[in-house]
Amino acid sequence: MSRTRWWWIRHAPVTENNGTIYGNADLNCDCSDFRAFSALANRLPEQAIWVTTPLLRTRQTAEALCRQKTFLPEPSFNEIPEFQEQSFGDWQGMTHKELEEKRNKIWHRFWLAPASEAPPGGESFVDLMQRADKAIDRLNHDHQGQDIVVIAHGGTIRAAVAKALDLSPEKALGLAIDNLSLTRLDYYTPENDPFTDQSSWGVGYLNAAPLAFVINQEP
Q1: Which of 164, 114, 159 is nearest to 103 (CA)?
Q2: What is the pLDDT along the chain (219 residues), one digit of tens a residue?
Q3: SS3 of residue 161 by DSSP
Q4: Secondary structure letter of residue 120 according to DSSP
Q5: What's 32's domain CATH number?
Q6: Does the global pTM surpass 0.90?
Q7: How far is CA 199 from CA 163, 186, 192, in A?
């Protein structure tokens, strides 16, 4: 069997949103937590395909990780637009309180709206899942048996876990994905055939805090 290991990392905390809903707005992030970046970087494989999204905060996080470890050769970053965060359209820039009032205090238990609801001018979480699903299949095919490090977003990582565990969109919204957390998903498939009925997913860890790896040195 061939194993493709996915190392999903949520970007560092954004620095410019002032508590507002930012979705796929292109904001900077805070990469100053040296201990967290060092612990996380030293958990990652030496040889890997590195993926970011077109949003600046994922590239900044990837570059900060690479500064904490000597990668040979130094990785190049592949931008995958399908892994961008969900667009909240007209809701972006609003506070959560403003959105609650706009929606007549109808609030979703996990997220800003049900998984199938698209904000005005935006997209639903189901839309995000569908675009991420196709990109994951493509990379599984193109990089079978390799390590893939993806610096992405909370919504995208929820979508990836949902694909691996066959979760419904609503159940996926209940997953906690923290900034700088690591989620490891393994895709197993017969050699030279990445898409058969015998392929399967495994979960190494979910939403693991980077400093946990200082204590836990499991290979």
Answers
A1: 114
A2: 899 999 999 999 999 888 899 999 999 999 999 999 999 999 999 899 999 999 999 999 999 999 987 665 678 899 999 999 999 999 999 998 888 888 887 777 778 889 999 999 999 999 999 999 999 999 999 999 999 999 999 999 999 999 999 999 999 999 999 999 999 999 999 876 656 667 899 999 999 999 887 655 544
A3: helix
A4: T
A5: 3.40.50.1240
A6: yes
A7: 13, 11, 12
